[in-house]
Design a protein that fits this description.
Radius of gyration of chain B: 22 Å
Largest sheet of chain A: 6 strands, antiparallel
Shape of chain A: globular
Mean pLDDT of chain B: 97
Strand order of the largest sheet of chain A: 1-2-6-5-4-3
CATH superfamily of the largest domain in chain B: Type I PLP-dependent aspartate aminotransferase-like (Major domain)
CATH topology of chain A: TATA-Binding Protein
Largest interface: A-B, 20 and 20 residues
Number of helices of chain A: 2
Strand content of chain A: 35-45%
Distance between the termini of chain A: 7 Å
Number of domains of chain A: 1
Oligomer: heterodimer
Number of domains of chain B: 2
CATH class of chain A: Alpha Beta
Low-confidence stretches of chain B: none
CATH topology of the largest domain in chain B: Aspartate Aminotransferase, domain 2
CATH class of the largest domain in chain B: Alpha Beta
Radius of gyration of chain A: 12 Å
Helix content of chain A: 25-40%
Number of strands of chain A: 6
Chain lengths: 89, 412
């Protein structure tokens, strides 16, 4: 079982009508986190390896080279945690 | 005109690289960066003059008190107030507005009274009035905005009546950068014996602001948006109005005397003079010192030059943004003569947060979301917006880089 605290520096709900969630990975773990996520997800589109549009199961999200990911349409924090645990395991 | 390249040398943070790119800071409407002079003034205060202010006879306290009072004087001159009695230091714009709401509104507003607030306000000029109206039962009337984001002055003139006790409006919108005609608003308000509270958070740092000319009764602004430190802000109030108001917070510093009467077994209290009556407790002295240095820095540049520089950048940026990306939308008026250096924008089929994250990859900092102005976004039928906002250290080259990166966003 992966410990999310090892990879995740910050989870922040965005401001706006759409309740997106931004996950920032720890700086020293971001490359490892990104590799794991890219290995597990299907890449729909990639721009110069800076932005990746990804799908994993029924979820689509974007991963940025800066070590941040934006998730949308998630039910709650538990669903996000479950998703991150699968992606980072 | 000011020289942004020379100015940049004073801002250590602008040398930073983020995500392997040179930092481009376009989030100035949220907070400005700080010049070396402000950082050094705060450091010097703590290294050489730190003491609690007022009511002490020792040298350090006198030095600290003098610096803190000088800071009030410097701000008073900067906005052309009559004197430091009209300048109350607070934590920021939000606290300044709450001070007016509670110290004036709580006692003055009655059930049948009305308060006018514009729909373009930051939440800090909406929420305190909504909270208070639930306590006192007065009615809040909102002024509409036009399709281009400008204030609907007709709606204002229709809304105001003899029941109106205060009109609360921002000088410059923190979303669109539109400059409201405060002189006109204050003149109309005064014809109805209503007061005017101006949110100056986005105007005082960017335009020459003369409170006598505006004739507003209160003007609130923050130090951190005008090169100063966080945690220090200003409530300007006309002396005769502040004199009549009771204090906001109670404690030390804001009283002249607290005397226990053994007969009544109560304390009788007399308030301190202005502005201290509104500054309870040990104040943010280093914040005041930092703000004073920030004001001196801006005065050396000249606020007319600040305004001209931002107007030039906004004029330069808007057509380039529209040319670089077919899907880009700039919200609100494009008339730079009535707006400051704030550009709210969106890209079709992308959330504002995706735009901000994309730009962040290239070291470009812009804000995304509601910018604490949800009613304005609802009026524009927007779920959120991205916002680029400029200041004295921004350059045309930075805008070129910004538009170059925006061009790539079209691939998303």
């Amino acid at each position: 079982m992966v410990n999310l605290d090892d990879y995740v520096a910050r989870i922040e709900g965005t401001c706006g009508k759409d309740k997106d969630v931004i996950v920032t990975f720890k700086y020293d773990k971001k490359d490892e986190a990104m590799k794991k996520i890219l290995d597990k997800s299907a890449v729909k589109k990639s721009i110069a390896r800076i932005v990746f549009e990804l799908t994993f199961k029924d979820f689509s999200f974007r991963l940025y080279g800066s070590g941040k990911a934006i998730f949308r349409d998630l039910k709650d924090k538990d669903e996000l945690n479950a998703l991150l645990s699968e992606l980072l395991s | 005109m000011l020289d942004p390249y020379k100015i940049r040398e004073d801002f250590p943070i602008l040398k930073r690289r983020i995500n392997n790119h040179q930092l481009i800071y376009f989030d100035n409407a949220a907070t400005s960066q700080k010049p070396r002079q402000v950082i050094d003034a705060i450091k010097d205060f703590y290294e050489n003059h730190n003491a609690n202010v007022h009511r002490a006879v020792h040298t350090l306290s006198q030095e600290a008190s003098e610096l803190y009072e000088d800071a009030h004087e410097e701000v008073a001159k900067f906005i052309d107030a009559k004197g430091m009695e009209e300048v109350v230091f607070v934590r920021g714009t939000t606290e300044a507005i709450n001070l007016v709401a509670y110290a004036w509104g709580l006692r003055s507003l009655k059930k049948d009274d009305e308060v006018i607030v514009s729909l373009m306000e930051h939440h800090s000029n909406i929420v305190p009035w909504e909270i208070l109206s639930k306590i006192n039962g007065f009615r809040i009337k909102y002024i509409d905005i036009n399709n281009d984001g400008t204030l609907d002055y007709e709606s204002f003139e229709k809304a105001i009546s003899k029941k109106t006790k205060i009109v609360c409006v921002s000088h410059v919108s923190n979303v669109t950068g539109i400059v409201n005609d405060i002189k006109k608003v204050a003149k109309i308000a005064h014809e109805y014996d209503a007061l005017t509270l101006v949110d100056g958070a986005q105007s005082v740092p960017h335009l020459p602001v003369n409170v006598k000319e505006l004739d507003a009764d209160f003007v609130a602004f923050s130090g951190h948006k005008m090169l100063g430190p966080t945690g220090i802000g200003v409530l300007y109030g006309k002396r005769e109005i502040l004199e009549k108001m009771d204090p906001f917070h109670g404690g030390g510093e804001m009283i002249r005397e607290v005397s226990f009467d053994p007969k009544t077994k109560r304390c009788s209290i007399t308030w301190n003079v202005l502005p201290w009556k509104f500054e309870a407790g040990t104040p943010n002295v280093s914040g005041g010192v930092g703000l004073m240095e920030a004001v001196r820095y801006l005065k050396r540049i000249g606020m007319e030059n600040v305004r001209a520089h931002e107007e030039m950048l906004t004029k330069y940026a808007m057509p380039r943004m529209q040319e670089c990306c077919r899907r880009i939308r700039i919200y609100g008026t494009k008339d730079t003569s009535i707006k400051c250096g704030i550009i709210p924008f969106g890209v079709d089929d992308l959330s504002s947060h995706d735009i901000a994250l994309f730009l962040d990859n290239y070291g470009i900092m812009v804000r995304s979301g509601f910018h604490c102005a949800q009613p304005l976004h609802e009026a524009f039928k927007l779920t959120s917006s991205a916002r680029a906002s400029f200041y004295i250290y921004n350059t045309r080259e930075e805008i070129d880089r910004f538009t170059e990166v925006l061009k790539e966003i079209e691939q998303l």
